[in-house]
Amino acid sequence: MERDQLADFLRRRREAIRPAEVGLAGGPRRRTTGLRREEVAMLAGMSVDYVVRLEQGRSSQPSTQLLGALARALRLSDDERDHLFHLAGHQPPPADGVARLARAGLLRMLDLLGDTPAVVLSDLGEVLAQNRAAVLLMGDHTGFSGDRRYLVYRWFTEPADRAVHPPEEQEYHGRQFVADLRATAGRRSGDPAVAGLVDRLRAVSADFRRLWAEHEVAVRRADRKTIVHPRVGPVLVDCETLVTPDQGQQLLVLTPADADARERLDLLRVLGTEEFPDYAPRGAAP
Hints:
CATH architecture of the largest domain: 2-Layer Sandwich
Radius of gyration: 20 Å
CATH topology of the largest domain: Beta-Lactamase
Structural class: alpha+beta
Oligomer: single chain
């Protein structure tokens, strides 16, 4: 671990980011160049004291999880993220691990979308990042681990996750999940991460086995769906998907499909997350 180099790199990256790039207001009285340390701590989900110790070269070796959080908070490019891992004495994540860190450009787009719900997903359907509007609409999907981090796995193994869509839409969404996973499996043929997920799903879900056997293939790029929110009711949204050139990540943008949906999303923004203490993360199909 190169503490002094790590401290210098983190400090310079923090000072290089404008608050607006991460969805924060600058304000006329702001004196700090770039982000404040407490803002980095908030964005990365860690203590201000630890950020201070990192920047002063006094910290213990950060874990790979903390480094990933810092990379997201500081909007690091792929090269900058790998450099961060090297300075901290870790190898950068392998190919599958890299896909689990949202690209800096997609994170910036999340911030720019503001009040429009948007999500960054891996090609296996893991939610890598969400903006506040998406959390209000669908719950926080970034805290899962193991196979549960994949939307498709929760869809077929946790029946309660299907309740975010009306019963008449659930068969359609199940088929879309499987067809999209088929496309990924074909594109990443021989990848043990994909093959293992498919095998585990086939072992635990008869419904998945039925749909997988039909061999439907489709990459979802545009869609319309109803998300049933526990407080404001059904919200009809149009979904547009932007895919990175390597097809490893995608940005999903959800816009209200009619005036009623727009009013419900406006109500969600007014109420805020504090109004929904019992709103647990659920697997809303993207």
